[in-house]
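Lay summary. Proteins are chains of building blocks that fold into shapes, and those shapes determine what they do. In this project we predict the shape from the chain. Here is one chain we studied, written as its sequence of building blocks.
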Amino acid sequence: MSISSAVLRGGLALALLLAVIVGAAQDITPLGEPPNPNLAITFPPPVYVLREVVEVRGTVNVPGLANYFLEFRPLVPAEAADSDTQRPWFPAALPVTTPVQDAVLGLWNTRTAPDGLYELRLTVNITGGGTEFFRVSPLRIDNASVPAATPTPTTVSAPARPTLVPTPTSLPGGAQNRPITPPPTLPANPANAPLAIALNNANVRSGDDVTYPRVGLLLRDEFAVIVGISSLGTGWYYVELTNGVRGFVAPSVVRTEGNLTGLPPVMPPPRPTPLPVTPTFTPTITPIPASATPASSGANLAIVSIRLEPAQPTCQASFGVFVTVINNGTGPAPTGFSISAVDRHSASGTVTASTTGAAPALQPGQTFVSEMYLTVGTFFNETHSVGVVIDSGAQVAETNEGDNSSAITYTLAQGGC
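And here is the predicted shape, written in a compact code that computers can read:
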């Protein structure tokens, strides 16, 4: 599959796009939040065309950060718009708990939405219950005009793909157009080399945890050679990308192929120090006590069911975890929320794999099915449990916090172990 970056060529194209947008929806005008050096989306800017997978860039570096995430929804004219609580937001990127300074906030796969006009929102949750937002609109998704391209087959020993080099054309917010090459096709593997193949876009990090900075990216179906495994027992693979960069990738976001026996243990580097928070001049306000929690709006999130696909997972093979959640309260869940899935060996309690997902804001009685994937490589022919927790970051104030977790058990088939 060809993955290309969002492309908009020149100021003339910007002017033509704005004319089309204003002509089609007279009451829709570009929305740009006041600049804030510590909380902002710098790319994409308002009145921009998006295609394929888009790097959303900006800064989230505020005191008391609990987490942040990206959401989107269709843009409608003012006279046809419902209130914000009646029109749901949909997740564009998973929640993140670490500060970001002028870097990638998340990857938005615009193929998940029909072509049209949208608004993008950055939601930042503050420890103690506060929430801040930053919106950008209008944005146009236009994937229908992306030309089809056939990836050129490569081998594991093929030359590195070209490094992504910014073009001289500067864009608002300091972002630049970046040419992206098609992902390599999985090669014939006569040497049975161990490969990690991305199930979806997968971050490659300097260490074996999501708190480490990203050093590379595997696009969906792109592969990297596995050259080791974390010595800390987390199961993260140490891989080498086609451009020579090495880093760790979570086993839950890749599937493997080839001979994985005898992988050498690799010690991850020390955990990174969190970014210092830039002080800002703000009015003095009365602090919120640490024990205080936001009043519930009547929402209550609950797990309806957990389904594994296949029902009996196989060792070293990716399997799906489908979680159905519902807001069975009397009021809306005003924001999206996180979903986590953790696989454990039942006899020892050892965590063998984990992953996270997200759900959008839900109205009373509305349900949502989250699709996540895990890969388990140990304790075959033994019982495992998959535990699921929703809204673990307390993004939604609920009337009942006691029905946010559930679990399902299965026996892991031997497969390739």
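What the prediction tells us: Residues 28 and 214 are 36 Å apart (CA to CA).
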